[in-house]
Amino acid sequence: MDRAxxxxxxxxxxxxxxxxxxxxxxxxVERQGEDRLDLLRDQHERLELLREERKTLLEELERERRExxxxxxxxxxxxxxxxxxxxxxxxxxxxxExxxxxxGRLHNLRERQRLGEELESERLAHSEDxxxxxxxxxxxxxxxxxxxxxxxxxxxHNKKGSWINLFRGNGR
Length: 172
Hints:
172 residues, mainly alpha, elongated
């Protein structure tokens, strides 16, 4: 036992050294544990908020569903009490459809008129071009004829003049 008491200070010193060596590791694990605990608390708070929001949304959805069912019930009751309302609604729907159809036909008519005017304009431009071409062709023919006539009259004058000169020369 004396020997055990003598070894006790060495054992205490060894234990203290071991504890000192693992202290940084223990602190790091403690910080990680605290960070994890903080994260879990934040997630728990978010989860509670989401549960409250879900509950609120479900209550609002249920309220809207009840209101819609009540409104449908009132509409059905009104239709039973006033059947002409359904007819008026159908007349209004058909009137709107007819109006849309009329607007479509009017649009198509205007588009056909615009295209017709455009086509007529192009046709007139083409016929004007044709008239201009015909006029220019006539002018070219007239000029060719005039040129041939001038060349012919010059040649004829020279020939006639040479015949006259020939007769004059003979008459001398």
